[in-house]
């Protein structure tokens, strides 16, 4: 049972500027659809479409083959919803009569966590290590390594500005078979910080370190393989979590009903209270968290309406536009334009 899928439903926000084509009518199953179908892309990929039941079945099966993690019963709920509210009986773009969208039931599309930026002395070397030792996949750009639904972007250390008040303690990658992964790490000379343990009620986990001193948690959580979570330390965890929820529309949830965090679509963000001051930079090399957006200008307009400020001007790196946000506790968070 995928516990967290059930808690993914977005909070309905009234009057937030989502275009009509990005909305889904209120109705039984909508929360399951939103939770399941916005993990990799937005509502706009399918909300404007109208299909027969058979076509929706085929599309949902296609999405499952691409990695949408749904149980049989969730698939049934999703197909029923799509047939009823996005069926051929409803004209494209028009809300289904009986379930006309009321302002109060509009779902604001949540932004999806996309990446962490890791500072290293040599980008090509780091990419090589994360691919050969950790099993990542080279991304479309030479400084990216993809793990499941999110990615790591490497930057040369010299460009790293310092953060204050918070820091990323570690990232976590989830493997289907952690014991096998650990054997491969040992064989490959990867530094192991803590061997495998399985705390009650949690999954198997261990800690390793990359050659440049970044701590990496490796876990076995079949419900989310690949990039699993970022673990942040902050003086005021509550403020950080609430800011992420408010800003990106992500959902507060408890990982395995134990760890307080935010499920940000592609990965979890967990925040733990930092003891004492968090020194700037604090020697950690994982520095920036990124959420993906479709179009940078409209995302900036959307975020501005919710009072989010920007730290500096939008900039373009490798043809991708991004901008840093003003965040609580000096966390470094950016939004990055996604090109498809
Ligand atoms: C694991 C990631 C993932 C999840 C979860 C996911 N999708 Fe997709 N979806 C994709 C990708 C990748 C594409 C782009 C496919 C392409 O361009 O060939 C896509 C494209 C689409 C398209 C356009 C292509 C088409 O076949 O018409 C629709 C519609 C769609 N998704 C619907 C859904 C629905 C409905 C859900 C929820 C059941 C869902 N998706 C969940 C990854 C996902």
What would your notes on this structure say?
The protein folds into two domains: about 5-105, no CATH class; about 110-335, 2,3-Dihydroxybiphenyl 1,2-Dioxygenase, domain 1 (Roll), CATH 3.10.180.10. Helix content is about 25%, strand content about 30%. The two termini are about 30 Å apart. The strands form two sheets. It has an eight-stranded mixed beta sheet. Strands 6-7-8-5-9-12-11-10 form an eight-stranded mixed beta sheet, with helices on one face. Mean pLDDT is about 80; it is low at about 1-20, about 95-105, about 160-165 and about 280-285. Helix 3 packs across helix 4 (about 70-85). It has eight helices and 16 strands. The chain is α+β, with helices and mostly antiparallel strands and about 350 residues long. Bound molecules: heme C. The site of heme C has 16 residues, from helix 2 and helix 3.
- Shape annotation: globular
- Rounded mean pLDDT is 81
Question: CATH homologous superfamily of the largest domain, by name?
Answer: 2,3-Dihydroxybiphenyl 1,2-Dioxygenase, domain 1
Structural category: alpha+beta
CATH topology of the largest domain: 2,3-Dihydroxybiphenyl 1,2-Dioxygenase, domain 1
> What is the CATH domain class of the largest domain?
Alpha Beta
* Number of DSSP-assigned strands: 16
The whole-angstrom Rg is 20 Å
Which CATH architecture of the largest domain would you pick? Roll
Query: Strand order across the biggest sheet?
Result: 2-3-4-1-13-16-15-14
């Amino acid at each position: 049972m995928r516990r967290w899928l059930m808690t993914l439903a977005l909070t309905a926000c009234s009057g937030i500027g989502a275009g009509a084509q990005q909305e889904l009518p209120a109705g039984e199953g909508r929360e399951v659809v939103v939770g399941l179908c916005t993990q990799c892309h937005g509502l706009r990929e399918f909300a404007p479409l109208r299909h027969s039941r058979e076509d929706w079945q085929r599309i949902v099966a296609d999405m499952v083959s691409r990695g949408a993690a749904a149980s049989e019963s969730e698939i049934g709920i999703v197909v029923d919803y799509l047939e009823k509210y996005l069926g051929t009986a409803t004209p494209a773009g028009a809300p289904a009569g009986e379930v006309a969208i009321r302002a109060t039931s509009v779902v604001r599309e949540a932004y999806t966590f996309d990446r962490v930026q890791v500072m290293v002395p040599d980008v090509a070397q780091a990419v090589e290590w994360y691919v050969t030792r950790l099993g990542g996949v080279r991304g479309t750009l030479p400084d990216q390594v993809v793990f499941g639904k999110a990615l790591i972007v490497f930057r040369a250390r010299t460009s790293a500005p310092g953060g204050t008040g918070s820091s990323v303690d570690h990232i976590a990658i989830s493997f289907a078979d952690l014991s096998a992964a650990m054997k491969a790490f040992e064989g490959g000379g990867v530094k192991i910080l803590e061997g495998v343990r399985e705390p009650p009620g949690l999954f198997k986990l261990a800690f390793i370190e990359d050659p440049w001193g970044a701590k990496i948690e490796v876990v076995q959580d079949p419900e989310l393989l690949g990039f699993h979570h970022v673990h942040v330390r902050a003086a005021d965890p509550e403020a950080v979590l609430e800011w992420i929820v408010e800003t990106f529309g992500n959902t507060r949830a408890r990982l395995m009903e134990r760890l307080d965090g935010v499920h940000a679509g592609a990965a979890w963000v967990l925040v733990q209270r930092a003891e004492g001051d968090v020194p700037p930079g604090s020697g950690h090399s994982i520095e920036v968290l990124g959420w993906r957006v479709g179009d940078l200008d409209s995302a900036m307009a959307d975020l501005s309406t919710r009072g989010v400020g920007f730290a500096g001007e939008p900039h373009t790196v490798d043809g991708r536009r991004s901008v840093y946000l003003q965040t609580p506790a000096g966390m470094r968070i950016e939004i990055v334009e996604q090109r498809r």
